Structure formats: structure tokens, C-alpha cells
Amino acid sequence: MTEAVPSWTDERVELLRRLWDDGLSASQIALQIGGVSRNAVIGKVHRLGLAGRVKPLGQVAANGRRKGDEVEIEASETVVIVEEPTVPEPPAIVTHRPAPDFPLNALPSAAPQPVALAVSERVTIMDLRDSMCRWPMGDPTKPDFRFCGARSITGLPYCSQHAQIAYQPAAERKRDRRVAGMR
DNA sequence: CCCTGATTCGC
DNA sequence: GCGAATCAGG
């Protein structure tokens, strides 16, 4: 069965609103809601009339694209006063309870390693640069402890692989039907 | 190249 | 209504 995604149910729309309002990007929202592409998210956002959220300060940035249309110099500059002059959009992604932190995987086999990717990159805290996945690998008390180090999703501390593990969408657990290996 | 959101348009 | 493809930009 292809367990077709419910489409935009009230709950999903609600979640979408929340996340969008929290300033998450469409792709991030798509990952969390699950089953939808970022395009789908953007499309929905527009249809809901949520588009044009808080702009990155200053630039009201009109739409950049206008196909066969000529200039449209209407728009009375009713410049919006930014509500919060000092709000850099912190990590508001905590909708589903995040990340298991290192102390946990000290357990025999509770270590988060369902990801069998080619662990080509694994870095020590020293080499952990920005935009690198901070998923812990190994025992933090041992010298061989490393972080995933793969490219993290913008705005998140993890790469796409680990982000999906850390931030699992509120799955519809009607009867729980987790089939391993979708996609 | 990575990422953003915006728009169009066939379904 | 939906979202892939596309566009425009950072």
C-alpha cells in the first residue's frame, strides 16, 4: 500500500502555519511534515495567503519575477516597521522534541546509528565547522568520538539524514504502520 | 553549488 | 486545490 499522505488535513495545515510562522524555510517544513516537497509547502503557503512572511529586515523585496509583464510601480511604500528589531529567529524547530544528545548512546545498543551511509566524513569537535552535522557518533568519553560532519540542513544542526531521525514528524499512528524503507 | 521563496500551469 | 517545473535571487 502506498499509504498515501493525507494531503492537507487540518492538522497538517496547522503545523504548516506554525512552522512557517516560526520562520522555518519551506524545505525544512517539508521535511518535518513529511510526505510533501518544499514546492508543495510553498504552494500551500501561498494558497493560504501566508506568503511573504517576515522579510530579512529592510528589503521588502517585491516578487522578483514578472514574466511577460512590464513594470508595476504601484505599491505605495507603506514600509512596515519591523516588530522586533532584535530577533534573529532562533532555533524554533522544537515542535517534535529534538535530538537525543550524546549521553544517551552510552547504552549498549541504543546508539543512533540506523544510518548506514558511507560515513566518509566524521569529524572531531575541533573540525566541526558551521553547517556540519552535529550528530554524535560513538562514545563521547572515548577519544574516537566523532560527529557526523556531513553538510547540515541550513537552520538545523543535522544533515538531512540525521535530521529526519531527530525530528520525526508527528506520524499518524492510527495503527502504526512503519514500513522500513520508503523512498 | 548550496540554498531561498515566487509563479506558472497542467492535472 | 495541488504541486512539479521553472524562475529569480542570495
UniProtKB/TrEMBL annotation:
Protein name as catalogued: GcrA cell cycle regulator
Organism per entry: Methylorubrum suomiense
Lineage of the species this protein comes from: Bacteria, Pseudomonadati, Pseudomonadota, Alphaproteobacteria, Hyphomicrobiales
InterPro entries xref list: GcrA
